[in-house]
Design goal:
- The complex is a heterodimer of chains A (177) and B (441).
- With 177 residues, chain A is mainly α.
- Chain A is 73% helix and 0% strand.
- Chain B has helices spanning 3-18, 24-40, 48-58, 64-77, 81-92, 98-111, 118-134, 139-151, 160-169, 173-201, 211-216, 219-226, 230-245, 250-267, 273-306, 309-320, 325-342, 345-362, 367-383, 389-397, 404-410, 412-427, 430-439.
- By secondary structure, chain B is mainly α.
- In chain B, α6 packs antiparallel against α10 (173-201).
- Classes of the chains: A mainly alpha (177), B mainly alpha (441).
- Chains A and B meet through α1, α2, α3, α4 and α5 of A and α2, α3, α4, α14 and α15 of B.
């Protein structure tokens, strides 16, 4: 395998791993925000921002964490046939079908960038009382999608490597599914 | 090309591509965007996929999802349920088949503390199963007991499946959860009756604890173990009481539940770094799995909406085949069951539901009631070979003497019981609807 491809996989996966590990703990921020919202409504003044902040955190959580989750192999596959194939056959089929994923993510990014541009240009705000700007969360989503695309590319390179008999280790040193 | 043909083409190309074993969210998303661009091009075709993220974000009850997943993992990873198991063990041991019956009770309590069936499976397979086998319980019966019992996790509230159903059917989650309570308990009761009957007819299937073993446990110890039962009761109450009383909303209750489970684990000294890390990491993995697949499925549903596929489907069933509403409903459940045997349960949830649920509404059936039918069907699909999710989990977790064939055979009678429950709820909708109608008045 050309060295720069191996380096690409390393860098991308290392980055997604680090960022994903951080995103993983956004769960507790989410808990905190929602709990604060409930407490303040019960005891003090109701806060107008907690629900939407929770929703933003949630979207950020799974968008930014998505690439790491992909690394962990959590995405379900229909393994009616896939489960019984040899690792080589799996890699062979995956090398082709991963382009479905890349295409989908590409279109997702296209829509995302368009939507972000609109949000930036017109200062789009969310309806409601708090009326937060929409651009920041849309930018976060686009970053998440880019991370997913990079991760899929890394997976593609790894599978090509497998077909040529080279195993590129994952960020934790374990074999990536 | 007519819209019906396009819809058919879309569905079949998706099924075909899914067979390649590529990650499901990618395939579903791919098919959706390809058709969206083909049909609508730059008139909203290309941003259809992204606009689903906003739709997903606006669905507030979705925030409960990571909370219940986290709760389930805290419970199973920290082995909080060990004491609970001991309690049922000691109290039900003397009855023939008692440990199996106790396991069903255990599963009901675990179901009331988390929203997926995985936690129940994990606890059942790692704690209950080895104990039951050691006491010469019939291995086929006990693997069936654990699988059937853990599947209650998605019917008894809190239920993640019903949260997702609520999103698709646009129904209040709280009502759906309440609707699941009575059918869930009824099904548990039917399991218990079945076990009791089997063990009464053939005591070798589930021998009672020997008197000398029973004597080892003192009365004080027995009473002390009852305390273990307070744990799930406590978690359930802190979660549900403020919700039912109207102090907290569903999402906030789910946070309280997650924190309560976490707090109990800390107090009991079971919250090690490994447990914490595993629970947090798995929550991310499972939440992402769900979210990305829903995102793709929403896009798929949006294209199907645009094609008016539901209308076509209704026309096909009612006018062309000439079925009555009930005929359609039964046919739908049957097709679900058949699909459930070879489709992954997540696939069923996200692909078929957007197609069937609006149809059920259009036929004039109650969508809350249908949510329960749908969940029971999912439960059955979870367990039916050759590709039930639970079957593989069980294989991965069970001790080596339990073979795959044992697991396949073990579920047969329980699937029968569940089908019976499905039919009963179909005939008597009030079993599901009584509780939500009483409380929501």
């Amino acid at each position: 395998m050309p060295g720069f491809l191996v380096a690409f996989v390393r860098v991308v996966e290392q980055f997604n791993y680090r960022v994903g590990r951080l995103a993983m703990f956004a769960l507790f921020a989410l808990m905190g925000v929602l709990l604060f919202g409930a407490l303040s409504r019960a005891f003090w003044v109701p806060q107008i921002w907690t629900d939407e902040m929770g929703q933003f955190l949630m979207v950020g959580y799974f968008m930014i964490g998505g690439a790491y989750a992909l690394q962990m192999g959590s995405a379900v596959r229909m393994d009616v046939f896939y489960g019984s194939w040899s690792p080589r056959t799996k890699a062979m089929i995956d090398v082709i079908t991963i382009f479905c994923l890349l295409f989908y993510l590409g279109v997702l990014l296209w829509g995302g960038i368009e939507s972000t541009q609109y949000a930036l240009e017109y200062g789009e705000r969310r309806r409601g009382i708090w009326r937060p700007y929409m651009a920041p969360i849309k930018i976060v989503m686009c970053i998440g999608i880019v991370m997913m695309i990079l991760q899929c590319t890394a997976i593609l390179i790894r599978d090509i490597g497998r077909l040529r008999g080279v195993e590129i280790p994952g960020p934790t040193g374990k074999r990536v599914v | 090309m007519s819209y019906d043909m396009i819809a058919l083409l879309m569905f079949s190309s998706m099924l075909l591509l899914l067979m390649t074993g590529q990650r499901m969210f990618g395939i579903i998303g791919f098919v959706s965007v390809v058709f969206a661009i083909w049909l609508w091009g730059d008139r909203g075709g290309y941003d259809l996929a992204f606009s689903q993220t906003i739709k997903l974000m606006n669905w507030f009850p979705l925030l409960t999802l990571p909370m219940f997943i986290f709760m389930g993992y805290v419970l199973s990873e920290s082995r909080l349920a060990d004491d609970l198991y001991r309690m049922f063990h000691v109290w039900f041991g003397p009855v023939p088949g008692g440990l199996a019956i106790g396991t069903i009770f255990l599963m009901v309590l675990i179901s009331a503390m988390n929203g997926l069936s995985v936690a129940g499976m994990a606890i059942g397979a790692t704690i209950a199963l080895p104990e039951l086998l050691r006491r010469n319980y019939d291995k086929r019966m006990v693997t069936g007991v654990i699988q059937a019992g853990s599947s209650l996790g998605i019917l008894i509230p809190p239920s993640v499946v019903l949260v997702l159903y609520a999103m698709i059917a646009r129904q209040p989650v709280g009502k759906l959860w309440l609707a699941g309570v009575v059918p869930g308990l009824m099904m548990a009761g039917m399991f218990i009756f079945y076990i009791w009957l089997r063990c009464r007819l053939n005591p070798a299937l589930g021998p009672a604890l020997a008197p000398e073993e029973r004597a080892q446990v003192s009365r004080a110890e027995k009473l002390r173990l009852l305390n273990a039962g307070l744990l799930p009761l406590g978690i359930f109450l802190v979660m549900m009481v403020p919700f039912v009383a109207g102090y907290t909303r569903l999402v906030e209750s789910s946070v309280i539940g997650a924190l309560a489970a976490f707090g109990v684990a800390v107090i009991k000294g079971r919250m090690t770094w490994t447990v914490f890390e595993t629970a947090t990491r798995m929550t991310l993995a499972i939440s992402c799995m769900f979210m990305w697949i829903i995102l793709a499925a929403l896009a798929f549903g949006a294209v199907f909406d645009g094609l008016r596929a539901v209308d076509a489907l209704r026309q096909l069933f009612l006018d062309d085949i000439g079925l009555g509403p009930w005929g359609v409903l039964i046919l739908m459940q049957l097709s679900y069951l058949i699909m459930g045997t070879f489709l992954d349960d997540t696939a069923m949830l996200v692909i078929v539901a957007p197609l069937y649920v609006p149809l059920v509404g259009a036929l004039g059936f109650d969508l809350i009631w249908y949510g329960v039918l749908y969940t029971i069907t999912c439960q059955i699909a979870y367990m039916t070979p050759p590709f039930g999710y639970n079957l593989f989990l069980m294989r991965a977790m069970a001790p080596p003497e339990v073979t795959l064939l044992d697991i396949y055979r073990s579920i047969v009678p329980f699937v029968g019981v569940m089908l019976l429950a499905l039919v009963v709820v179909m005939i008597f909708p009030q079993i599901a609807l009584w509780l939500p109608e009483t409380l929501y008045r």
